[in-house]
Write a structure and sequence with these properties.
The protein is α/β, with parallel strands linked by helices and about 425 residues long. About 45% of the residues lie in helices and about 15% in strands. Helix 1 packs across helix 16, helix 5 packs across helix 6 and helix 13 packs across helix 15. The longest helix has about 35 residues. The C terminus is likely disordered.
Length: about 425
């Protein structure tokens, strides 16, 4: 069986980490499956593929496509029309690359490649859309995927909430839910930890300082402003330092903060002495082991929230926005604490509560690790994915063969 993955990015956001976990899980479970990744740029994803002995091809997106956003449907549609010639040329190149591999299944990982995959897939290959976000929140993509969904054999959602959203937008589409998972060996409470103070250029923390971190790309909906405002509401005597860990990684215009913007807000809120900015860290587990509390602060519905699963595996105490997809497999008050999405006050209350209670932090962290071992082990991915791929490949092969079979039957009848 040959599986080809189309990735919209080679930098490491959540979708790209999930892709690596799928590749690693499948490679460990069945070395005979042929895996190939086609991505749009050079980046860490390429080296991860090399380490897993997975062939990777870079086919760069033209700038006009790479910068297409979905801020407003009307403007996005105009941008899409302007980029039409480069889109057509890119689809033709992509089709040649795909045909050279002759995949049984094409698994697309990102909205732009969901659309490109429809037009580039060869006859006889099944198409899987891996949906990591709420389609309904993307005006242009919702319209495109609704009309193109009849060409998709399966939509794979990363949470039950996302699956329901896909069904509502793309009526009649075949949808399944496969929750994300993590490497429990890499993400654990044991191992090296990074000095987040040093990395952020801050003075060493005094003993008993509670380190509270938000680890995320700088997408505007990830809640960096909420986090900074929550830190500003903490009592000055509370020994808490905050850390923003991550950077802007995507090419889409207008969708991300810059570190400069966030530093300016920290100055304005008078918390610059209490908040450090580390920039991007290759190994998030190193940062997690250097923190006492990990905050997930997304202001919009979080489709999954991979950082929640990773923090659980590291045994951290976690404060997460209500409704995050990962928490479908967890229990509020037992293996994490919740706060109202986009509300600095309820987040500040939870930080204060956990910072003052070491026993509670330890209990939440131990329960989180136990939950991770039960539901977030990435070995589960192969056991769920491979049967799906096999079924899709078999069904598509049968459907492709139908016209030829009918023709043969007709000829036989005539004879």
């Amino acid at each position: 069986m040959k599986i080809l993955y189309l990735s919209a990015c080679s930098q490491f956001g959540g979708a790209e980490r999930v892709l690596v976990d799928m590749l690693a899980s499948i490679r460990a479970a069945n070395s005979e499956v042929s895996l190939h990744v086609v991505t749009t740029e050079d980046g860490p994803l390429i080296s991860e593929c090399d380490a897993l002995r997975v062939q990777a091809t870079v086919l760069r997106l033209p700038k006009g496509i790479a910068r297409l956003g979905d801020a407003t449907s009307a403007q996005s549609l105009l941008n899409l029309l302007a980029a039409a010639p480069s889109i057509i040329a890119h689809v033709l190149r992509l089709r040649r690359v795909i045909r050279s591999f002759a995949p049984d299944v094409i698994h697309t990982n990102g909205f732009k490649v969901h659309v490109l995959g429809v037009f580039a897939k060869p006859r006889g290959a099944a198409l899987v859309w891996h949906i990591h976000d709420f389609v309904s929140s993307r005006p242009l993509m919702a319209r495109l995927l609704k009309h193109l969904s009849r060409f998709c054999d399966l939509a794979m959602a990363n949470s039950g909430a996302v699956a329901a959203d896909v069904r509502a937008v793309c009526t009649g589409i075949n949808v399944t839910t496969i929750h994300n998972a993590v490497d429990l060996h890499r993400f654990s409470s044991t191992g090296a930890a990074i000095d987040v103070d040093e990395l952020a250029g801050m003075r060493p923390s005094v003993p008993d300082t509670i380190r509270v971190g938000l680890i995320a790309t700088l997408a505007r909906w990830k809640g960096h402003e909420t986090f900074l405002r929550a830190i500003s509401l903490l009592p000055r005597h509370l020994p808490v330092h905050g850390y923003i860990i991550g950077d802007a990684i995507y090419q889409t215009e207008g969708s991300q903060h810059s570190l400069g913007e966030l530093r300016a807000l920290a100055e304005k809120l008078d918390v610059a002495d209490r908040v450090g900015f580390t920039g991007f860290i290759d190994d998030a587990a190193l940062a997690m082991r250097g923190l006492d509390i990990i905050v997930h602060a997304s202001t919009e519905r979080e489709p999954f929230g991979l950082v929640i699963a990773e923090a659980a595996a590291c045994g951290n105490s976690i404060i997460a926005s209500q409704g995050a997809g990962a928490t479908e497999l967890m229990h509020d008050g037992i293996d994490f604490a919740s706060h109202d999405a986009g509300d600095p006050l309820t987040l500040a209350v939870q930080i204060t509560h956990l910072a003052a209670d070491a026993e509670l932090r330890n209990r939440l962290g131990a329960s989180a690790r136990a939950t991770a071992e039960r539901v977030f082990d990435r070995a589960r991915l192969a056991t769920e994915l491979l049967p799906l791929y096999q079924t899709l490949a078999t069904q598509t092969l049968a459907q492709t063969a139908e016209p030829e079979i009918r023709e043969l039957c007709s000829l036989t009848s005539d004879i």
